[in-house]
Amino acid sequence: MGSRAAEGAGSEQPPEGGMPEAPGEESRRLTREQLFIVAAAASINFSSMICYSILGPFFPSEAEKKGAGNTIVGLIFGCFALVNFLGSLILGNYLTHIGAKFMFVAGMFVSGCVTILFGILDKVPDGPMFIGLCFLVRAMDAVGFAGAMTASFSILAKAFPSNIATVLGSLEIFTGLGLVLGPPLGGFLYQSFGYEVPFITLGCVVLVLVPVNVCILPKYDSIPSKDSFWKLILLPKVLLLCFIIFSLSACLGFLDPTMSLFILKKFKLPAGYVGLVFLGLALSYSLSSPLLGLLSDKLPYLRKWLLVSGGLLTALCFFLLGPAPVLHIESQLWMFVLVLVLIGFSLGMSAIPVFPEILQCAYENGFEEGLSLLGLVSGLFNAMWSLGAFAGPTLGGLLNEKLGFEWASAIQGGWALLSGLAAGIFYIIETTRRSSSSSLQNPPGNNEERTHLMGSET
Prior knowledge:
Shape: globular
Helix content: over 70%
Distance between the termini: 42 Å
Strand content: under 5%
Structural class: mainly alpha
Number of strands: 0
Mean pLDDT: 81
Largest sheet: none
Low-confidence stretches: 1-30, 453-458
């Protein structure tokens, strides 16, 4: 996939136009651009995740004071993922019309502005006015996030055609860092300065990064393609990969509304220590992602087995997280943290190879190479992840309320089990078909006949 994508990238105009340069000069110039692109992508990964995660420690209690019940608060959180799902599909389809750089910068600007707006919602009258504005601001933030992340994935795939998994895996360090630092930083600023300061501070930081990214990001020109989302998503392999993305995101999202309550109730930990338990998952995912990305790029044939084994390992870990009552194992803190570490690693095994696998499948099925396809793939990836992020907490919260955390986590792991088994069956069938078609194209008799003729000639 890498060589083919590299040829496609090379066939288009250089980002800034102008006369062609010598190979050595071009490689130096591109290396400099690649560093700028990585810096820009790291800034959006970190800033968006830290703005997303600061709500957890204090917003539910503040919203309750303003007349929003638990169900409404859950919907305010969930609407972000739902709008992000729709926004990613639409913006990914129109990436080449809008422009990747403009979409990236505009999405970041919108995200910074609405983060500041969220900080002044405590001044709004209680009741329906407050609730309605929360939904509106949250939805606007989701649109900005969808635009910035869709453009970011596309620009990265354009700049790093042969090692996109390595780059995406490395950038997950900043995603994990934002998720880890968001809750404690938000909680500290809230306790020290009140409701407004966390949002206004982080929103201003994001806005400061906007002109920086305007200066450092290159502008890629691309001709819109006739390919569509429907043509891409109706490919059987892409459908399978979309289900894998959905299942991983649903499993991860399940932990948001349920895990902290289970830890406080089961292990009697102080509230301040709950965030430390979350570190096990976030750090293992962030640290393993670059290695898994490198492995995925250097040994592409291993991607399929990373997807299969990652799904099955994730399912096993969720079965052990409670653990499931049928195992008759008493839950202990050390085992809980160990399982979270394994979940972080197994999620990386499945999540990192998906993007290059979708790209490779698109190339094999005749999609035109270029920024238009990268926009479709980026939008599809972000949309499926957002759909899982909406379904996971919604269904998980219901299961947790009806059955308890032990059974709920085991059932939630069924998503990963289904995706792992489906991927294994699909790849076995695909390998069998390819081997049988190659044997039909090169029958053994032909080789023997050629050998006999060559021997008779000598």
